[in-house]
Design a protein that fits this description.
By secondary structure, the protein is an alpha+beta fold. It has 3 helices and 6 strands, in the order H-H-E-E-H-E-E-E-E. The protein has one domain: Roll (Thiol Ester Dehydrase, Chain A), CATH 3.10.129. The protein has a 6-stranded antiparallel beta sheet. The longest helix has 17 residues.
Length: 148
């Protein structure tokens, strides 16, 4: 289970930061769940987000997986901190074809500086969900100036 949550206002902080991500606005992604160590991002499928075969582009799927991991990590970071991706690996498991794509991230280990997360992306059609991608990511806690 993730480390202890350090900021009682984590949800407001995460939502405010998410609102500043122009890429999330551009693609129409939205936060659907924000809990300590867990974040979900949903994206309605649109033709302008697809590749040549009509599937949501792998880069778009990776983008929401990355942000979901980053914000899951951020929920456990101190107030006034920021978050940056250090590295990630994505396995594309099935075409991202559905009414929407949902990225569900969870913190596996939270440290003072580095946090390891996993996330799964699901293509959703009605009640049916198809696992289409999975990510393992490491996130970096950007501490406020003057804090060690």
């Amino acid at each position: 289970m993730p480390a202890e949550q350090k900021d009682p206002n984590f949800e407001a902080r995460v939502r405010a930061s998410f609102a500043l991500q122009n890429i999330m606005q551009l693609i129409g992604a939205r936060l659907s769940r924000v809990e300590p160590g867990i974040v979900e991002i949903d994206l309605d499928s649109r033709s302008d987000l697809t590749q040549q075969n009509g599937y949501v582009h792998a880069g778009i799927v990776t983008t929401i997986l990355d942000s979901a991991c980053g914000y899951a990590a951020h929920t456990l970071m101190p107030a006034n901190s920021g978050v940056l991706s250090v590295e990630f690996k994505v396995n594309l498991l099935a075409p991202a074809q559905g009414e929407r794509i949902s990225a569900r991230a969870e913190v596996k280990r939270s440290g003072r500086t580095l946090t390891v997360c996993t996330a799964d992306a699901f293509a959703i059609n009605g009640e049916d969900e198809t696992l289409c991608a999975t990510m393992l990511a490491t996130m970096f806690c950007v501490k406020p100036k003057g804090v060690e």
